[in-house]
Prior knowledge:
By secondary structure, the chain is α/β, with parallel strands linked by helices. The protein has 3 domains: about 25-95, Elongation Factor Tu (Ef-tu), domain 3; about 95-370, P-loop containing nucleotide triphosphate hydrolases (Rossmann fold, 3-Layer(aba) Sandwich); about 375-495, Lysin, CATH 1.20.150. It has 15 helices and 16 strands. The chain has an 8-stranded mixed sheet, sandwiched between helices. A 6-stranded antiparallel beta barrel has the order 1-2-5-4-3-6. Strands 7-9 form a two-stranded antiparallel ribbon. Magnesium ion binds next to helix 3. Produces ATP from ADP in the presence of a proton gradient across the membrane. The alpha chain is a regulatory subunit. GO terms for molecular function: ADP binding; ATP binding; proton-transporting ATP synthase activity, rotational mechanism. Keywords: ATP synthesis, ATP-binding, Cell membrane, CF(1), Hydrogen ion transport, Ion transport, Membrane, Nucleotide-binding, Translocase, Transport.
Amino acid sequence: MKLIDQYLDQIEKEIKNSSLSAKTEEIGFVEELRDGVVMARGLDNVSFGEIVEFQNGVKGYVIDLMEDLVGIIVLGDYLGINSGEQIRALGLTLSIPVSDEILGRVVDPLCQPQDNGKLIHPDKMYPVETIAPTVVYRKSVTVPLQTGIKAIDALIPIGRGQRELIIGDRGTGKTTLALDTIINQKSEKVICIYCGIGQKNSKIALVSDLLQKQGAMSYSVIVNASAADPVSMQYIAPYSACAIAEYFMDKGKDVLIIYDDLSKHAWAYRQISLILRRPAGREAYPGDIFYLHSRLLERACRLADSKGGGSITALPIVETLEGDVSAYIPTNIISITDGQIFLETDLFNAGIRPAINVGLSVSRVGGNAQTKGMKQVAGRLKLDLAQYREMAAFSQFESDLDEETKKLLNRGAKVTQLLKQEKNKPYSLAEQIVVLWLAYKGYLDTLSPEEVTIFEKKILETLKIKGSEIVKTLIKEKMISEDTEKKMVKLISQIAEVKKV
Ligand SMILES: Nc1ncnc2c1ncn2[C@@H]1O[C@H](COP(=O)(O)OP(=O)(O)OP(=O)(O)O)[C@@H](O)[C@H]1O
Ligand SMILES: [Mg+2]
């Protein structure tokens, strides 16, 4: 063999054994910086939702693709980014680390701890934006999600996998309603996620304190993008909270997620859109504002058994101005959700708390999930209340009313009194059934409103001491059988004040 062939052989071998491989990287440049939004040039092959990295290590999220520019929202401090600096596309869609360790924690939308606790070890990476499960992978809503609030469980029942909007003016008890529902999940094995969007950090601290005190933090997660955080964080917060919920749902668990609130989320998106110079539409929101919330709320569902049978129940909160539900964002979200709980300032100020307007509130699918016992006592109640409201308005001008109307007004007033509930005091299903049964059977008709409250308290105390058998059968049978009813009548006869009509 010639010397030259030997050399060639040698070279060939070395090339074969070398580990050199070509790696291409997408590099672009900051063209313009606009208040948390970067316009970049040169990133021709990035896709929507991809993450990029700036020179100082801060990450960005591609949100706008134009002919030669790319709009990126900065996920972090944007003050260290300079015009002309390099941007690297990472070729990944935005994902967050999730694991069981996240329970009991307060995190930001990227799952970084905000509670001075240790870092969360990821079990899996979950994409922040996903496509909602299709109809084939879904099951209808049939299992109730007990809120522990009498008025809701009786009149506007919520099922697991449902989306129910909580809507009302400032300070009408929206957050309290949502938190009470979390507190009531202690015995229900439902994992709860509270997502605060654009709120004061002090309010989030109160939420975390309350859940801690009530022993609810062990099965809850708080995702917080406060008013002080960049709008980019506020924008992705609900999606990333939903990704955490999906992690647990995929494990077959039932999850409750609260978005507090989506009005502020819409504001954050409007701000980003206006900076990106997208055409503004009604109330200066961009044209795709409907899609912003529909793609989020569509991810709430109850999975089919083949997919593990888990569920996500979503309770989005929306703030209205002067009770105006026909504003842009409220109407959009009302049309996306399966019903709404409407809270009113007038009721709140009149001492009717929770300030639920029963007439304007509906639950379109929850009825299928209501337990039989609840249906037995609540069916009449709804009718009574509806007639009462109608009559109450008329009767203000009328002096002599017929007996029938008087009876109706009396019943309505007592039921309204009965549906009042202190905050952070959820009722168990058995307690609710017994208490509502009193109204159904007319035990309250002869009492004054103050007496109704006292009577209710007494009944609950007696139920605790002497009624454990009734509670047990109610929980087991989930309905009032003849036998149980007899026992309930007997129990009530032990309380002195009862004057049955
Ligand atoms: N059922 C209730 N009984 C007594 N007080 C209540 C009840 N519900 C709410 N409150 C009180 O009303 C106030 C407002 O409640 P909350 O913060 O839940 O309202 P919000 O609608 O979430 O307000 P914001 O618009 O500021 O977020 C709080 O001080 C709360 O303690
Ligand atoms: Mg609130």
